[in-house]
Fold this protein.
Amino acid sequence: MSSDANKAVLKKLEELDGRCVEITEQINDPTVAADPKQLIPLSKEQGKLMPLVSRYREYKQMTAQLEEAKSILADPDQDAEFKELAEMEIDELGGKQETLLEEIKNTLVMADDAAIDSIIVEIRPGTGGDEASLFAKDLYSMYTRYAEKMRWKVDTLEFTPTEMGGLREVIFNIKGSGVWAHLGYEGGGHRVQRVPETESQGRVHTSAATVAVLPEPEEVEVEINPDDVLEHVSCAGGPGGQSVNKNASAIKLEHVPTGITVSMRDEKSQHKNRSKAYRILRSRIFEYEQQKIRAERDSARKSMIGSGDRSQRIRTYNFPQNRVTDHRINLSLYSLEKVIMGELDELIAAMQDHDKQQRLENL
């Protein structure tokens, strides 16, 4: 990375250091300390900044030690022994400082992603009829297996099966450390090429499904004015017995300012459906606002990976060739059987590396 880019990084780190000092002063204010509405967000922001700021302070301390050693080396009045020690310190500290700066830069560009530990995933079949619905079910199984392997918690919010055993729609929450940093790249169009079970001639069909991955914000991050939400209550149709169909338990929320709507009929309880619907609504509004910020900040980066654009074809799963291809980074792996069983580590690591480089270049 160029010296100009390093200067930009150090300037940003100095700003974050200043913000950390400011937060500490605010937290020490008795008025703020007594008000949870002020204290909790400040404490969370401080907790997010401190790992980065503490390493930056370590970097600054190394810089001061290097400057002192260089001044000893440049001083004609210093004896040879001191100069020799100073030279050894310069060599040692120089390497350590360079390594530390690289680590800090990586943390800086990925810190926002690492801080999000809850996401909402929505999977729906695209073109391909029953085969697309079955593929949607395969993707759901793939992600839940991966989540299980990562020891994350999965909570299914909406699950609508088809008669053929596929899925018409599934919405689920995954919660755990690093979940957005790992699965934030999965949003987009997924395509499958395989011979469907119903195909008698053995022909390969191409079907598709869309995946949306939304960060689930804390309630304090997205405040929804109840006056902005229209609520419609109705009887829940479909499977579930007479108690589901007779009770007015289905909830539809419409957020007037954004036009975003959420329908929930999964539970028999109106209260539970309302609670789930608000969780999804909050995530969709958060993502809507984030997209607006991204577009305003830099229109040239609309196609940035991990944006969650549903129209973008990001990956193809070719069963006859046992190949999975990620089109964003031109990576093909001949281990589709393992991938579909939830072994996503290699694909995700490659995306993380690519994304990290892109973000460093755009600093």
Q: What stands out?
A: Confidence is low (pLDDT under 50) at residues 239-245, 297-311.
